[in-house]
Amino acid sequence: MMTAERGASRNTQAAYGADLADLEVFLGRRKQKPATADAEALRAYLKSLDYVGMTPRTVARRLSVMRQLFRFLVAEGLRSDDPASALDSPRLGRPLPKVLSRAEVDRLIDATKDRDGADGGRMATLLEILYATGLRVSELVTLPLSAVERDPTVLVVRGKGDKERLVPLSDPARAAIAAWLPVRAGALAEGETSRYLFPSRGRTGHLTRQRFAQLLKEAALAAGIDPARVSPHVLRHAFASHLLEGGADLRSVQLMLGHADIATTQIYTHVLDEKLRALVQEKHPLARRSRGRRPVDRTRPPGDT
After folding, report:
1. Molecular function terms in GO for this entry (predicted)?
2. Spatial distance between the Cα atoms of 117 and 120, rounded to a whole number of angstroms
3. Which CATH fold would you assign to the domain 10-86?
């Protein structure tokens, strides 16, 4: 159902499969299985996740998977009841996305341009496209060659749920693509062809997400940035946050990111709020004065001591 009806990606299918396999092992120890499990067994499973130290967000994801499974079982007539409907979701905080500054992104891209050969050109192109478009890493590494062969001003991206969206390309990204195309053949064996913009001789035929993340850590080190702060998703966050800082409207950012719900995009407004608050605290003259003086009691009349 996830594949045929919802068009779930292979990564989503793998994640759901792993979560449900873990649930099945737990239920097996209680002599139950999904078709017969009751709400008490599911609550015990969620408690076990908390006991081993899983974060509330991970527990919430496992619960979401269970709810979808049991709704499916009821819809298919394999169960008459839905035991997951009575389960409470864990309370979640609202962690703000990690974001690099504009200067740090510039340093990161410049560090890749200093590398010689095809690898350097490939990384520079990957980063320029990622920062210019905010693509998901899976969308980036699987970009088809046909998407850029005619120097496009926009990319047609096929994202989650097999949905297409249009994302504008910046001039630096287009220039990086133009420089990469002539040396792209160096990533292939002699006489070999590939439909991907970033081909690989590996099993997938394209640069993998894991390899890109590894190369990104190396670029962070070269740029003098803590590698722990850098990931493909952090650059996606930087794209969205820097757009909003520049005055872009939330709906446009939502469309470019491919978010189904604008509430997902609104998290970036909180990042902007935090930056503005820090700016006022650091730069406003009254804020600086208040740090060195005792607060004024404005309830007392003038001259009252």
Report:
1. DNA binding; tyrosine-based site-specific recombinase activity
2. 6
3. DNA polymerase; domain 1 (1.10.150)
The closest of 220, 135, 149 to 126, measured between CA atoms, is 135
Phi-psi sector, 54: left (phi>0), alpha (psi -120 to 50), beta = beta
Tell me which of 6, 43, 67, 233 is the catalytic residue.
233
- Indicate if 268 belongs to the active site: yes
Is 236 part of the annotated catalytic residue set?
Answer: yes
**Which residue among the candidates 160, 209, 211, 275 is catalytic per the annotation?**
160
pLDDT computed for residue 302 by the predictor: 47
Torsion from C-alpha of 206, 159, 66, 263, nearest 10 degrees: 140
Give 54's contacts (C-beta < 8 A, 6+ positions apart): 62
Delimiting residues of CATH 1.10.443.10 domain(s) in the chain: 102-226
Question: Each residue of 153-197: pLDDT tens digit?
Answer: 998 888 877 788 989 999 999 999 999 999 888 888 777 888 999
- Kindly report the CATH number that applies to the domain delimited by 102-226: 1.10.443.10
Look up 160 and say whether it is catalytic. yes
254 near 265, Cβ under 8 Å? yes
Exactly one of 136, 184, 206, 237 is catalytic; which is it? 136
Report the alpha-carbon distance of residue 104 to residue 241 in Å, rounded.
14
pLDDT at position 97 is 63
What the block records as the tokens of 13 is 């299918």
Residue extent(s) of CATH 1.10.150.130 domains in the chain: 10-86
**For residues 201-208, average pLDDT:** 88
- Could you tell me the sign of the dihedral formed by the alpha carbons of 51, 53, 56, 59, in that order? negative
Q: What is the pLDDT of residues 98-146, one digit of tens each?
A: 778 899 999 999 998 877 656 668 999 999 999 999 999 999 999 999 9
Q: Is 259 a catalytic residue?
A: yes
